[in-house]
């Protein structure tokens, strides 16, 4: 398990990276950032990539649920 300070840094960097990705449309920017981190700290790189992947997976899960709920509501409109 990584040091809590490393995890905190990785989480902040992940949030910033996702914001930049969203604004620029570069959906693989996190991979470039990971490469930069890996050149000097494998520990921070791993924590960062974990933080990115969990956030991206969370968003994909939420999008899936929104889609399922919309499909359900469209198929079963309230009268």
From TrEMBL:
Superkingdom, taxonomy of origin: Bacteria
Name of the molecule in the record: Uncharacterized protein
């Amino acid at each position: 398990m990584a040091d809590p300070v490393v995890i905190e840094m990785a989480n902040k960097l992940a949030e910033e990276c996702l914001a930049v990705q969203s604004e620029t449309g570069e959906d693989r920017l996190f991979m470039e950032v990971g490469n930069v981190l890996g050149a000097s700290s494998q520990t921070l790189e791993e924590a960062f990539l974990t933080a990115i992947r969990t956030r991206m997976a969370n968003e994909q899960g939420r999008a899936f649920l929104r889609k399922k709920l919309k499909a359900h509501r469209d198929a079963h409109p309230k009268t």
